[in-house]
Amino acid sequence: MTAATVPPLAADLDTALRRLRLGAIRRLAPDLLITAKTQRWTPEEVLRTLLEAEITSRDASNTANRLKAAGFPVVKTLDDLDRTVSTIPPGTLDYLASLEWIRAAENLTLVGPAGTGKTHTLIGLGVAAVHAGHKVRYHTAADLVETLYRGLADNSIGRIIDTTLRNDLIIIDELGFAPLDDTGAQLLFRLVAAAYERRALAIASHWPFDQWGRFLPEHTTAVSILDRLLHHATVVATEGESHRMRQAHQRGGTHSQTP
């Protein structure tokens, strides 16, 4: 029987499925009921197949929504990470990929030179967390502090922090890319303190910890932020040549030079 000749669902069934928002069942039921009748499925087989289709459809939709809400600048996966050049120990990377630290509300801090895979690792872990059912939000440090500043200006800072903490994993990338003033540092501390032992934070910075004073103006604030970040945390130091620079050199080596 062709799609054009498949009889539609009875109007009352179609209306009921729309009302219950069972979209996958409503789409599949006409064809599936014919198949079930032809192959003499039991009622349990029909019901099970329709419910499994609805669950699969909803899971896919929820994952897509969480992925969009995460705000990743690009989508990168852990499978795309070249472990042959990554300086993250394989055992550490396997532990991070297990996502146990997110469920335990622990932190991850990546420090190392630009181009050594920090952002890729953060996004890859974030994408894996989304697919595992976690809520994730990605920020650059500059964008996050700007958002907190706006909240301070209109007295919505508490709501912004509460909304941020609805996520299971909060990613803060490029910390230290630009220096913070006293207010910005205090706002960042306020978020980190609110998340402490409640939500997992994943931070990346090209500055080693003993140089965080370069972008945090107040020593006490820097110590307080580090104290909360590093307690219950996995700390990874990346190193080596920039992956992007190495790839650029490799591409350049494939082109002939014109005098």
SSE blueprint and pairings:
Blueprint: H1 11-19, H2 23-39, H3 43-70, H4 90-98, H5 100-103, E1 107-111, H6 118-131, E2 136-140, H7 141-153, H8 157-164, E3 169-175, H9 182-195, E4 200-205, H10 219-230, E5 233-237, H11 243-252
Parallel strand pairs: 1-4, 1-5, 2-3, 3-4
Helix pairs in contact: 2-3, 3-6, 7-8, 7-9, 9-10
Characterize the structure shown:
This protein has a five-stranded parallel sheet. It starts with 10 loop residues before the first helix and ends in a 7-residue tail after the last helix. It has helices spanning 11-19, 23-39, 43-70, 90-98, 100-103, 118-131, 141-153, 157-164, 182-195, 219-230, 243-252, and strands at 107-111, 136-140, 169-175, 200-205, 233-237. Mean pLDDT is 90; it is low at 253-259. It is α/β, with parallel strands linked by helices and 259 residues long. α2 packs antiparallel against α3, α7 (141-153) packs across α9 and α9 (182-195) packs parallel to α10. The protein is elongated. The chain folds into two domains: 3-69, no CATH class; 78-245, P-loop containing nucleotide triphosphate hydrolases (Rossmann fold).
Please give a handful of descriptors for the protein shown.
259 residues, alpha/beta, 5 strands
| Oligomer description | single chain
Can you name the CATH architecture of the largest domain? 3-Layer(aba) Sandwich
Arrangement of strands in the largest sheet: 2-3-4-1-5
Q: What class do helices, strands and sheet pairing give?
A: alpha/beta
CATH class of the largest domain reads Alpha Beta
Sheet having the most strands? 5 strands, parallel
Q: Pick out the low-confidence regions.
A: 253-259
Which outline best applies? elongated
**Residues in helix, %:** 40-55%
How many H/I helices? Answer: 11
Q: How many distinct folded domains? A: 2
Strand element count: 5
